[in-house]
Design a protein that fits this description.
Blueprint: H1 2-21, H2 23-29, H3 34-62, H4 64-82, H5 88-116, H6 122-129, H7 132-174, H8 192-195, H9 198-201, H10 204-232, H11 238-266, H12 270-290, H13 295-310, H14 312-324, H15 329-367, H16 369-374, H17 389-392
Helix pairs in contact: 1-3, 1-4, 1-5, 1-7, 3-5, 3-15, 4-5, 4-7, 5-6, 5-15, 6-11, 6-14, 10-11, 10-13, 10-14, 10-15, 11-13, 11-14, 12-13, 12-14, 12-15, 14-15
Length: 395
């Protein structure tokens, strides 16, 4: 089930990432401005944000298998149709539709992992599942630019179309929905897990959503501005800077597994989440001073910062699914991802404006305020007593 979850999420990520790697072709050879090309590239992400909570609600209602399989199938159809689009408006509309469908694995594949792994092994399992996003981006980065350069947009879209189609079939055949209790027990009373309303009965989910949105700020600051910082501030060559960024992303993916394993060892996802938040403050302050230390130290600090700032994702995701319970986790995970995407969309213009006004060192120091604010908001393990034990211990 973990393998199917990774395949599904990675395939949808390839589709969402593909338009961004078409920007060089659209701008240099097709004559689109960077703004127009960027608008096309943002269409799948916009579609994904629009439908995350809706896919989550459908997952709560009918289960994971058919939500994932149908979403991937629609994404594949949109990708195949986009290969024959005759104008950029049609292409953008198909990217939008594909993005709306590609949200289904985001909302449902995490539930498959949560549902089939016992509590003491979920951290590692979810850390592996969370690797699928960098994996999908890596597949797109290795294939799309070359195919676009040699065969145009249609050739490049073969990759996400085939991957999503194959994944849809595999998930339809292979995924088994995790066991879920009936909504009502004998006598007609609501099952304790079905009676739990996490957003109404507790502030835990609201706080984790806010924490995750705050922790997205340093994460996307590093991923968005790390390359330009190395090139413009430290005068690294584009090749050297690209190698550092590539190494940082790979290290960050492994870090997600490591922190997930740590959470299993300590028996808590929330305590490591607080630790990550505290360390994120430190690494962003180190980033603000790294420019004065030389290229080698700056590169090492950036790699450490990349590991730390992505480490919270799996911890928060797992905590949200556990606290929400089997009848709310789809919507809760959709809300979790929606908040993160919305926060991430602000990072580019906001941090870019900060860099323009005060420079990279001060901008990085200001970004450190985000995890500093997040740290006291992370719930304590003792607060989980507000959640029915039947919910926390599922399956």
């Amino acid at each position: 089930m973990l393998s199917f979850g990774v395949i599904a999420q990675a395939s949808s990520t390839v589709f969402v990432s593909t338009p961004a790697f078409l920007i060089p072709l659209l701008h240099t050879e097709r004559g689109l401005s960077l703004g127009q090309a960027g608008l096309l590239a943002s269409a799948p992400t916009l579609g994904l944000v629009i439908t995350l909570i809706a896919w989550g609600a459908l997952t709560d209602r009918i289960g994971e298998r058919w939500v994932i399989a149908s979403g991937l199938a629609i994404t594949a159809i949109a990708a195949f149709a986009a290969m024959f689009a005759s104008d950029y408006i049609s292409l953008g509309a198909l990217f939008l539709i594909g993005g709306m469908a590609s949200a289904s694995p985001n909302a449902a594949s995490g539930r498959v992992v949560i549902g089939w792994f016992p509590k003491e092994r979920r951290g590692l399992a979810m850390g592996i599942r969370q690797m699928c996003q960098p994996l999908g981006v890596a597949v797109a980065a290795l294939t799309i630019p070359q195919l676009a350069a040699s065969g145009g947009i249609a050739a490049a879209l073969v990759v996400p179309a085939v991957l999503c189609a194959v994944s849809a079939v595999l998930c339809a055949l292979g995924i088994v929905d995790p066991p879920r209790p009936p909504r009502r027990v004998d006598g007609g009373d609501a099952h304790p897990q079905a009676a739990w309303h996490p957003y109404r009965s507790s502030s835990l989910l609201w706080r984790i959503h806010v924490v995750s949105m705050l922790l997205v700020i340093p994460q996307f600051t590093i991923s968005t501005f790390g390359l330009v910082w190395l090139v413009t501030e430290l005068h690294a060559s584009p090749l050297a800077a690209g190698l550092v960024i590539g190494a940082s992303q790979f290290a960050g993916a492994l870090g997600r597994i490591g922190v997930g394993l740590l959470s299993d060892r300590v028996g808590s996802h929330l305590r490591p989440l607080r630790w990550v938040s505290v360390v994120a403050v430190a690494v962003m302050l180190l980033m603000s001073a790294a420019g004065a230390l030389g290229m080698a130290w700056a590169a090492a600090i950036l790699i450490v910062a990349a590991i730390v700032t992505v480490a919270d994702n799996g911890l928060a995701y797992t905590s949200v699914a556990e606290i929400a319970g089997p009848f709310w986790s789809g919507r809760a995970l959709g809300a979790q991802n929606t908040g993160q995407f919305l926060a991430a969309s602000v990072v580019g213009p906001a941090v870019g404006g900060l860099v323009t006004l005060v420079g990279f060192p001060f901008a990085f120091a200001i970004v450190a305020l985000a995890p500093a604010i997040a740290t006291p908001l992370v719930p304590k393990d003792s607060e989980l007593g507000a959640v029915p034990v039947e919910v926390l211990q599922r399956p």
